[in-house]
Amino acid sequence: MRTFCKSIALFLMFWFVPKPKSQTNVCGVGFSNPTPVKLPDLRIRRPQSNLLNVVPLIFILPAILIGCNNLSSAPPKNLYQDTRLLMDTTVNIKLFADSDKAAQSALNAAFAEMTRIDALMSFYSKNSELSKINRIASKKPVKVSPEIYNIIKDSMYYAKLSRGGFDLTVGELTKLWGFGTQSQKLPSKTALKNSLFLVGYELVKFNDDKLTVSLTKAGMSLDLGGIAKGYAMDRAMDIIKRHGITSALINAGGDILAAGYKSGGKNWRIGIQHPRKKDVIVKKMNIYNQAVVTSGDYERYFEQDGIRYHHILDSFTGMPARKCQSVTIISKDALSADALSTAVFVLGAKAGMRLIETLDHTEGLIIDAEGKLSASSGLN
To answer: Burial code of 52-89, b = ≥16 C-beta within 10 A, e = fewer?
Structure first.
């Protein structure tokens, strides 16, 4: 590759040597990018003076050499990985690093960050900041940390965007169904009706100056389970990058966040599993600096009288959402992909796809309740 680049440089030097009564044209040399871009017109008219005739050479040679340097500086070839149980799932992190010490430092710091976030936002831990909010915020405004304040505001954004498809106020419904515990059960119609009175994202109030959160109905509670894992993945990847690692992939229970390329400049390649056929991959794709998050009715569920009851609850009915089998969102970050996969799952294929198509840097793959596959315009 370096020989090729030197040849181009020599060619350009020869091409730009002033020649009387001749016209000089320069052809742009393009290098592949993950996102296609429209190249500018690089045609240059021959200047009238010999001094100006050298200017294009000064600008073009550095550009060519920089491009060659980028192509030759592939990520380090040493692959390191670790797997741990976090946030009620298996988390695997792969990364390319120069040394064992650099890799282990980045891995330990990334897992520590995810552990910290889990402790901060755990729904069932009495010591989490989220539990403190749920105990007090319906009685009086609760001053919270800037971090969890921003996460709750982000959750509110996606709740409004999806008009309740994603709703952070389903906490009492989560308790009622027992998802995330050993006592999952089908609640009574009366209990469901009573809990639904405590659901509604418009019931959460904020004070940006004081960083306080209020819940306007006694007994209501917040559940950040639909966004916390995505946020934790984003934060873990930020930590990895701060350690000087530019190529990494986080797999948290099938939810993926990729940074950079694999060793050798290759894209990360993943497959999306069919929700009913574990051996069937419905879509393969290359990803680069992207998140791929799936919500499905096969992740956490129990069966009673031949009916499957899963953990993605419809805030309008209090029951598990029934319009989809799985929803996969591809986005630039895991937080938005996490929230949107839940929202679209609840909204269903038709309304969910309409929402996806309005969003920048977002694609979706939906398998509806009948097993029909639909993909957003950017995936077709």
So the answer is: ebeebbeebeeebeeebeeeeebbbeeebebeeebbee
What confidence tens digit (pLDDT) does each residue in 216-245 have? 999 999 999 999 999 999 999 999 999 999
Q: Distance between CA atoms of 237 and 245, rounded to whole angstroms?
A: 9
Q: What is the mean pLDDT of residues 246-250?
A: 97
Q: For the sheet with 255-259, list strands across it.
A: 78-86, 89-97, 248-252, 255-259, 291-296, 324-331, 363-368, 373-375
CATH 3.40.5.10 matches 267-380: no
Q: Which CATH architecture has domain 124-215?
A: Orthogonal Bundle (1.10)
pLDDT tens digits, one per residue of 130-186: 999 999 999 999 999 999 999 999 999 999 999 999 999 999 999 999 998 888 999
**Domain spans of the chain, in order of start:** 2-72, 124-215, 267-380
Could you tell me the pLDDT band of residue 74, with boundaries at 50, 70 and 90?
low
